[in-house]
Amino acid sequence: MNSALDAAGELAIRSLILRAPLASSLADVFKAAGFRLALVGGPVRDAILGRLGNDLDFTTDAPPETSKKILSRWAENVWDTGIAFGTVAGRRGDTTVEVTTYRSDEYTTDSRKPGVTYGESLEVDLSRRDFTVNAMALELTKGAPEFIDPFNGLHDLSQKLLRTPGGAETSFSDDPLRMMRAARFASQLDFTVADDVLHAMKEMAGRLSIISHERIRDEFTKILMSHNPRIGITMLVDTGLADFVVSEIPKLRLEIDEHHHHKDVYEHSLTVLEQAIVQEGRLGGPNLVLRLAALLHDIGKPKTRAHIPGGGVSFHHHEVVGARLSRERLKTLRFDGDTIDEVSTLIALHLRFHGYGDGEWTDSAVRRYVRDAGALLIHLHILTRADCTTRNRRRADALAATYQSLEDRIELLMEEEELSKIRPDLDGGQVMEILNLRPSAAVGQALDFLLELRLENGPLGEVRAKEELLKWWSTK
Asked: What is the CATH number of domain 166-245?
């Protein structure tokens, strides 16, 4: 090994000993059984970067069932949900490990699942890894730990460059999801993607169609939740991969938004996403629902674009269309129901603030705003503020001040009326007693009337609420 490899290996080994001391004991168990074990992939990369976590990936020449037996001697818990793909996992203390038999995955032309072929050497296993920076290993069962880097991953790591160990076309044929992974690592690590890799991504984007929606969702989520999602999203769009992930996003490049001085709606959407991320501290940290809503909030514009006589364009009701489209897209990507509901709700509400003019909000309008936002009120605050991307400083400041006045009004009414717990002044039992009703649709209608009365006028008290209910009922 040259001096650079020696230094990198020593750094990785020190990091492994410091942050994952149990790794050596796991290696001892495999060595005692006559098998090799190496730390591999992302954990080696992260060990060199000095940020190794407690989730470790290993590779071995032991067959999967044998690995399971060996791992059972070391781990407190073992699970084999990935054993069909050569992977068994276990946990001991705070350390979680995955051990995978040397392998190479290969997709057939129309398969959504890879065919697994087990290999015979660590070097061949590394040659079928996604990128050179993930094709480094620490061999732990040959005496002293040995750093192995057959494809110059260390050099690429120092250059912050993503290359494939072999030809990019071969790598992406083995697993087309690696094309999305390139965008993800670029976002997460601020890496540049090699030209031949980008070319292969453009040429082979259609291969992504054979990957399961769940795997695509997971990679897309990782891109979106990275510290710089613009990089990855732009790469997906530029290579054509976005057409197979969120096809609504590249379509925004063709749309012009009349509210933003003819600014590209695609660029506007990325800026809104970035401005929402800046405010995520209000939600305690990175928030998937907020980021999805920010990215997708204007996807209804292509379908609602209309030319205005005399020049200009309009996008009437694009928030309604966008909410529907986002629901369809997230459902296709197999997001959970709560996430789908919350994102579509935020998109449907993101223009509500602008519908109330220059801030002359009635108490009734404030109550309805809070009621409709529900638990997503802070999300909506952030999204609405982030949606201002005008370069006109005076206009931006005026919008921010107007929205701040709304937030102040909400806070005041929250204290006076407990807006987050708005309920009719009478409950269902009281309604049935007053109107001499049995459980029926009429009870629901009466409660809806009382809720509207409460939203319009604030707390009424039971006496007045009863009077108003009886007046309403007399007209039925």
From this structure: 1.10.110.30
